[in-house]
Design brief:
With 408 residues, the protein is of the alpha/beta class. The protein is built from 14 helices and 17 strands. It is an enzyme of class 2 (transferase).
Length: 408
């Protein structure tokens, strides 16, 4: 199987047939179209069934509850069998010949990611707003970091996941997925994928038709923008802090990029005190991030690369805590491919029954040997007290994460 086209579907009966027509008419063979029906309340499912009867390469996955765009894409990734993945939103279209062009270019360079351009369709007036062709050609092969930095220097980021033709093996091996429960999930996925990609290319061609409509998720859920961007910023900072291999130039450029996303976040979040303008850049990433979070953003977790590697290969990792900091810690560890086996607290409360689907136990219920590693997921003011309690219980492997506290 050459390509898996992943199409999340939710309440798009007006546009779905046009989208599917653009996919089934691609001039190549050996590709699948995976449609994830996310509990639509309109006629979308009937349209999918009609097309699936006509085209054997269309497969339908139906969620039993509405989970959102990120979860739908993640379901598609799990089900995909193609060598490469192409995400398509169900109100958009692929240009004819897009799959063949993308696949041939990807195979020629053995690229982890192929970036490309989009056309923009005004849904109201039914005409192309803009045919995107950059006046900058990114000729040749790059690492993901190199091209990310070039994009930033030229103010030319290709953040949308629908314009990233991406190798499935690369996604699986790097545990890449879309952060569920937020909008603007592409911001985080784009950053992490670029940071991890060994070989990427850019083809300066518009191969995707993006429909701009006012009732889209991005428009209808704008109240979620600030919280979603906060999640993206915190996870980008956490990854950046944990990687010590960035050059001075890369650190400066990534700092500028995160600051730019933060400035967008500020537009949707009201502060009692405005952020102090200051020099955001330099080699001290911790100081950069502290300055970024002078406002009301929450804490950022940091663990060294050596500790992360140790946790990845440990058989029993336990988070102590089940509140806000534990949630941030779990998400940070998950993004760094660390598996958590247990979550424990001193006294379990009604609202602390599970965290990220893992049952929360009281420490008294735990019966672990000394090989278990505890990572304390609480505010720093409680860490020493919890460490003493764990040592009194005979546990020796205890980690207290560094936290960049909010300032101001």
């Amino acid at each position: 199987m050459k390509i898996s086209i992943i199409v999340p579907v939710y309440n798009v009966e007006q546009y779905l047939a046009e989208c599917l027509e653009s996919l089934v008419s691609q001039d190549m063979s050996d590709y699948e179209i995976i449609c994830i029906e996310d509990c639509s309340e309109d006629n979308s499912m009937s349209i999918l069934k009609e097309y699936a009867r006509k085209y054997s390469n269309i497969k339908i996955i139906r969620h039993t509850t509405n989970k959102g765009l990120s979860a739908a894409r993640n379901s598609g990734i799990k089900a995909a069998r193609g060598e490469y993945l192409q995400f398509v939103d169900s109100d958009d279209m692929l240009v004819k010949g897009a799959c063949k062009k993308l696949y041939n270019n990807a195979k020629k360079s053995d690229a982890d990611i192929v970036y490309f351009n989009m056309e923009f369709l005004n849904d109201t007036d039914k005409f192309l707003i803009r045919h995107e062709e950059s006046n900058i050609d990114y000729v040749g092969q790059y690492t993901g970091r190199q091209l990310f930095c070039l994009y930033e220097k030229n103010n030319n980021h290709k953040t949308e996941s629908v314009r990233q033709f991406i190798k499935r093996e690369f996604v699986i091996n790097n545990h890449l997925q879309f952060h569920e429960g937020i909008i603007h999930e592409d911001v985080l996925f784009y950053f992490l994928a670029a940071m991890k990609a060994n070989t990427v290319i850019d083809i300066n061609t518009s191969l995707y038709i993006y429909r701009q409509r006012e009732d889209s998720i991005m428009w209808s859920q704008r109240d979620k923008t600030s919280g979603s961007l906060k999640v993206c910023i915190m996870n980008m900072c956490a990854y950046w802090l944990n990687d010590e291999s960035f050059s001075d130039d890369e650190n400066e450029i990534i700092g500028k990029y995160i600051k730019r996303i933060y400035d967008i976040y500020k537009q949707y979040e009201h502060y009692e005190n405005e952020i102090n303008e200051c020099n955001m850049f330099g080699n001290r990433k911790e100081k950069i991030i502290q300055k970024i979070f002078l406002g009301k953003c929450d804490e950022v977790i940091y663990l060294s690369k050596d500790i992360i590697d140790k946790l990845r290969y440990n058989e029993k990792n336990i988070i102590y805590g089940a509140g806000k900091m534990a949630t941030i810690l779990y998400d940070y560890l998950h993004q760094n491919n660390v598996k958590i086996h247990n979550i424990v607290v001193t006294n379990k409360k009604r609202n602390h029954q599970t965290l990220a689907g893992i049952r929360v136990d009281e420490i008294n219920e735990l019966n672990e040997n000394n090989d278990a590693i505890f990572i304390i997921g609480t505010d720093t003011k409680f860490q020493s007290e919890i460490e003493i309690e764990l040592r009194n219980r005979g546990y020796k492997n205890i980690i207290k994460p560094s936290i960049c506290q909010k300032r101001g």
